[in-house]
Design goal:
CATH class: Alpha Beta
Distance between the termini: 28 Å
CATH topology: Alpha-Beta Plaits
CATH architecture: 2-Layer Sandwich
Shape: elongated
Mean pLDDT: 82
Strand content: 25-35%
Structural class: alpha+beta
Radius of gyration: 17 Å
Number of strands: 4
Low-confidence stretches: 92-99
Largest sheet: 4 strands, antiparallel
Helix content: 40-55%
Number of helices: 5
Number of domains: 1
Oligomer: single chain
Strand order of the largest sheet: 2-3-1-4
Length: about 100
Amino acid sequence: MFEGTREDLQKRSKQIIVVQVDKPERAQVLLDGVSRTMTCEGNCIRIESDGDCDPAQINAILVKAGVAVSQLTTQHPTLEDFFLELTHTPAVEKEYAVR
């Protein structure tokens, strides 16, 4: 159960920063240590942030090192995502998987 404002709910969530670059391997090396969770798929790097990663700083690091950034966006969980996270119970999934 959660009680609080929308802002309180957003503070609990993780921001996802998505960066599309021309040199994904180089970008990952440059951004190592920026976040504990970073994944790469094709030319897109997804960085999970607790609010400690600044998209402008990420862009500056990459551009300064000669990595072309063609897109940089931030994504926040939707209200539906929050609901699913709050109501998610592994025991229920196991019950349905057994049936």
